[in-house]
Design a protein that fits this description.
The chain is mainly α. About 60% of the residues lie in helices and about 0% in strands.
Length: about 140
């Protein structure tokens, strides 16, 4: 089930496991007050090590579900997911932000962003038509 916030995901996964807040905290030695605050969005998600333990306690073994959990945690903390912290990609974010605000990026900016995203997903740089590029700046 896709969740919109980390708080929803935390509570939803716990409930899907059939555990009350108290039972979950007893089983996995979490502080009920803190977990309640996390599930209500009143406290940020734990740091990476704590998040790993939390995800495992929730039984999140499916890679996609686990990744969504970590992505929602990063969003809740106002951070970029660790696996996407790429300096070149971050430099292209203003074009994305302008597009979201209704000021579309130019063709070169779109091409550069697509190339960076493809590079992250398959390790190869390509143009939008799928042809390989040997130099990321085209020179």
């Amino acid at each position: 089930m896709p969740y919109k916030t980390f708080a929803e995901a935390a509570k939803g996964h716990r409930l899907a496991a059939g555990l009350s807040l108290r039972k979950f905290c007893l089983l996995f030695e979490f502080e009920p007050g803190n977990l309640s605050k996390i599930e209500r969005g009143l406290m940020p998600p734990p740091k990476r090590a704590g998040l790993e333990i939390y995800a495992s306690a929730l039984g999140l073994v499916d890679d996609d579900v686990r990744q969504e959990f970590f992505d929602l945690a990063a969003a809740a903390k106002g951070e970029f997911p660790e696996d996407l912290r790429d300096e070149e990609l971050v430099r292209q974010l203003p074009a994305l932000f302008r597009a979201i605000r209704g000021d579309p990026p130019n063709d070169q900016e779109v091409e550069r962003l697509i190339r960076l995203l493809r590079k992250r997903t398959d390790g190869q740089e390509q143009t939008t038509d799928g042809t390989k590029i040997t130099n990321s700046e085209g020179s």
